[in-house]
């Protein structure tokens, strides 16, 4: 009898789940077996949870990973670019794929904001993932979730940690160029500046230092660190926290005039490997951006201790990076009936 009741309950649940999915493609409440972390059935009717596409698009992550595998093999820097794309999405009206929208009659694209213009990249890879997902599961997997999956996949393929990724974000119907300019921290930020801008997103100092560890991969343009080489404090002197030989090397990449688009690795020791060398370099005065080096020298809170701890213990860094990525990925998502699942990540439906 008990068995029959359980079996009947299961059938009804499966039926409801299928009905809702059909009525609202892409809504995928994930009702059914193991629908929510902790096993609390129905605990996340409008929240994010890892099994969101379990029934509506079980192959989603495999599709993401197969495109990433090829793209990153062809161009290792792509991993870094995709990780950054998720960050720049989440800091502007939440993780809603607003960064992917192109200019249109109603959209002032975030791609033209100061932190993104001539800098943010990876859109073609997201397009390719989206096209494959639309073929396999039409209008089901949001662009915002694709960004989150691509960021995790890129971290893993670069040798970094993995994490169980909450899913179910929906896509915005608008963008905010002005919030991109005000919410994304500039590279010449003071430590207090960085802490304030992260706090605005409910991220604390631990998140700030761990997530800055994303700079273990990728590159930066000369324009973003030139000030440190030639005029750090408006007195025509360099940033004295720069280690001498590193400083000389950077000057050869980045002359006083011109060369603004020349690039230098954020972690010159292992620029395509996700490891904790980034933190060791900071200890040695070889952080590239002002925002990297001030985590050690800024003298606010306990970021210095955190840099030292992550430099000493890569497992500790990996664990915290994963935790903080989940936290960042949870910034104000659109869920339930809010937003939409775009068919093409560059335009609203
Ligand atoms: C703490 C505040 C941060 C500042 C001020 C900052 C600033 C920058 C700047 C200026 C660049 C180079 C852009 C260019 O040259 O055009 C960059 C690159 C990068 N950032 Fe950040 N960033 C911060 C936090 C983060 C976070 C939280 C992540 C990810 C978790 C991240 C991931 C990356 C990656 C991977 C690159 C290299 C991208 C590529 O090679 O295409 N950054 N960042």
TrEMBL record:
<keyword id="KW-0349">Heme</keyword>
<feature type="binding site" description="axial binding residue">
    <location>
        <position position="215"/>
    </location>
    <ligand>
        <name>heme b</name>
    </ligand>
</feature>
<feature type="binding site">
    <location>
        <position position="275"/>
    </location>
    <ligand>
        <name>Ca(2+) 2</name>
    </ligand>
</feature>
<feature type="site" description="Transition state stabilizer">
    <location>
        <position position="84"/>
    </location>
</feature>
<feature type="binding site">
    <location>
        <position position="267"/>
    </location>
    <ligand>
        <name>Ca(2+) 2</name>
    </ligand>
</feature>
<dbReference type="GO" id="GO:0005576">
    <property type="term" value="C:extracellular region"/>
</dbReference>
<dbReference type="Pfam" id="PF00141">
    <property type="entry name" value="peroxidase"/>
</dbReference>
<dbReference type="GO" id="GO:0042744">
    <property type="term" value="P:hydrogen peroxide catabolic process"/>
</dbReference>
<keyword id="KW-0575">Peroxidase</keyword>
<feature type="domain" description="Plant heme peroxidase family profile">
    <location>
        <begin position="47"/>
        <end position="349"/>
    </location>
</feature>
<keyword id="KW-0732">Signal</keyword>
<feature type="binding site">
    <location>
        <position position="89"/>
    </location>
    <ligand>
        <name>Ca(2+) 1</name>
    </ligand>
</feature>
<dbReference type="InterPro" id="IPR002016">
    <property type="entry name" value="Haem_peroxidase"/>
</dbReference>
<feature type="binding site">
    <location>
        <position position="216"/>
    </location>
    <ligand>
        <name>Ca(2+) 2</name>
    </ligand>
</feature>
<dbReference type="InterPro" id="IPR010255">
    <property type="entry name" value="Haem_peroxidase_sf"/>
</dbReference>
<feature type="binding site">
    <location>
        <position position="92"/>
    </location>
    <ligand>
        <name>Ca(2+) 1</name>
    </ligand>
</feature>
<feature type="disulfide bond">
    <location>
        <begin position="222"/>
        <end position="254"/>
    </location>
</feature>
<feature type="binding site">
    <location>
        <position position="185"/>
    </location>
    <ligand>
        <name>substrate</name>
    </ligand>
</feature>
<feature type="disulfide bond">
    <location>
        <begin position="143"/>
        <end position="345"/>
    </location>
</feature>
<comment type="function">
    <text>Removal of H(2)O(2), oxidation of toxic reductants, biosynthesis and degradation of lignin, suberization, auxin catabolism, response to environmental stresses such as wounding, pathogen attack and oxidative stress. These functions might be dependent on each isozyme/isoform in each plant tissue.</text>
</comment>
<dbReference type="GO" id="GO:0006979">
    <property type="term" value="P:response to oxidative stress"/>
</dbReference>
<feature type="signal peptide">
    <location>
        <begin position="1"/>
        <end position="23"/>
    </location>
</feature>
<feature type="binding site">
    <location>
        <position position="96"/>
    </location>
    <ligand>
        <name>Ca(2+) 1</name>
    </ligand>
</feature>
<feature type="binding site">
    <location>
        <position position="110"/>
    </location>
    <ligand>
        <name>Ca(2+) 1</name>
    </ligand>
</feature>
<feature type="active site" description="Proton acceptor">
    <location>
        <position position="88"/>
    </location>
</feature>
<dbReference type="InterPro" id="IPR000823">
    <property type="entry name" value="Peroxidase_pln"/>
</dbReference>
<keyword id="KW-0560">Oxidoreductase</keyword>
<dbReference type="GO" id="GO:0140825">
    <property type="term" value="F:lactoperoxidase activity"/>
</dbReference>
<feature type="disulfide bond">
    <location>
        <begin position="57"/>
        <end position="137"/>
    </location>
</feature>
<keyword id="KW-0408">Iron</keyword>
<feature type="binding site">
    <location>
        <position position="98"/>
    </location>
    <ligand>
        <name>Ca(2+) 1</name>
    </ligand>
</feature>
<keyword id="KW-0479">Metal-binding</keyword>
<keyword id="KW-0325">Glycoprotein</keyword>
<protein>
    <recommendedName>
        <fullName>Peroxidase</fullName>
        <ecNumber>1.11.1.7</ecNumber>
    </recommendedName>
</protein>
<dbReference type="InterPro" id="IPR019793">
    <property type="entry name" value="Peroxidases_heam-ligand_BS"/>
</dbReference>
<keyword id="KW-1015">Disulfide bond</keyword>
<dbReference type="GO" id="GO:0046872">
    <property type="term" value="F:metal ion binding"/>
</dbReference>
<comment type="similarity">
    <text>Belongs to the peroxidase family. Classical plant (class III) peroxidase subfamily.</text>
</comment>
<feature type="binding site">
    <location>
        <position position="94"/>
    </location>
    <ligand>
        <name>Ca(2+) 1</name>
    </ligand>
</feature>
<feature type="disulfide bond">
    <location>
        <begin position="90"/>
        <end position="95"/>
    </location>
</feature>
<keyword id="KW-0376">Hydrogen peroxide</keyword>
<keyword id="KW-0106">Calcium</keyword>
């Amino acid at each position: 009898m008990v068995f029959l009741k359980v079996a009947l309950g299961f059938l009804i649940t499966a039926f409801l789940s299928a009905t809702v999915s059909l009525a609202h493609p892409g809504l995928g409440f994930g009702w059914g077996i193991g629908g929510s972390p902790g096993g609390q059935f129905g605990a996340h009717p409008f929240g994010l949870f890892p099994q969101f596409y379990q029934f509506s698009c079980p192959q989603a992550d495999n599709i993401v990973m197969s495109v990433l595998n090829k793209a990153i093999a062809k161009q290792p820097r792509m991993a870094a670019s995709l990780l950054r794309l998720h960050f720049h999405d989440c800091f502007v009206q939440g993780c809603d794929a607003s960064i992917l929208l192109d200019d249109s009659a109603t959209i002032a694209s975030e791609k033209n904001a100061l932190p993104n213009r001539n800098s943010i990249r990876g859109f073609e890879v997201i397009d390719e993932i989206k096209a494959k997902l639309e073929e396999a599961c039409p209008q089901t997997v949001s662009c915002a979730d694709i960004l989150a999956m691509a960021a995790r996949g890129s971290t893993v393929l670069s040798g970094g940690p993995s994490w169980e990724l909450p899913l179910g974000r929906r896509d915005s119907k608008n963008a905010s160029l002005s919030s991109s300019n005000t919410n994304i921290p500039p590279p010449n930020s003071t430590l207090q500046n960085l802490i304030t801008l992260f706090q605005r997103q409910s991220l604390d100092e631990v998140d700030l230092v761990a997530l800055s560890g994303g700079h273990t991969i990728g590159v930066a343009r000369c324009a973003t660190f030139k000030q440190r080489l030639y005029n750090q404090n408006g007195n025509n002197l360099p940033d004295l926290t720069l280690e001498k030989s590193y400083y000389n090397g950077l000057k050869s990449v980045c002359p006083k005039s011109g060369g603004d688009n020349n690039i230098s690795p954020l972690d010159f020791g292992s620029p395509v490997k996700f490891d904790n060398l980034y933190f060791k370099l900071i200890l040695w005065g070889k952080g590239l951006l002002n925002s990297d080096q001030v985590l050690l020298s800024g003298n606010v809170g306990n970021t210095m201790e955190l840099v030292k701890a992550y430099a000493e213990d890569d497992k500790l860094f990996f664990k915290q990076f994963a935790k903080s990525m989940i936290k960042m990925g949870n910034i104000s998502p659109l869920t339930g009936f809010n937003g939409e699942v775009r068919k093409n990540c560059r335009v609203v439906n």
